[in-house]
Amino acid sequence: MWGGSVPIGDYTGELVKLAEAGQHNSREFVQMKIEAVKKRERESDKLFHRMLECLRPVVEHASRNGIRLGIESRHSFEEIPSEREMIEVLGRFEPATVGYWHDFGHVQVKHNLGFLDHFEWLQRVAPRLIGCHLHDTKWPGRDHMAPFTGGVEYDRLIPLLPKDTLYVFEMSPRRTKEEITTALALWKERFGA
Fold it and tell me: What is the pTM of this model?
């Protein structure tokens, strides 16, 4: 499920551009990131609570019908829910109905931009995990690459996941058959079927 965005501009895209230009340690990058955090904190509360209001009847319907919902990690810093908000969402609803859906590429982009630590985040939410979108990210922000072709540390991260986790390869339609079959063979070699 997706909760929308806080209308503060595309800070994620701008930060990716700066990082691509080798400016990820620059004063401009740091100032832009601080500005993004301040703006999002000022603007997000009302929108986050509106998202919760919209989500409540969906969760009630899912609960009555034995459906389990996964709230997906978002790609951009501007999107709802943020990681802090995700913890609040998961705390408000029963684990039998609402869980967490981890998108490896989305979280890796935020990791690359310094908004979170991928390992620590996944470790924290793994108990509520339902499933994952598997794709890789070429630093800093090009996601939906074939697994094992970018910076996602699958060997370090996969052991954090519950045994019954669902895995879905989610790649760009620009990925070739060879890229996908190679990634799948590597996956099976490292982690089994």
Answer: 0.94
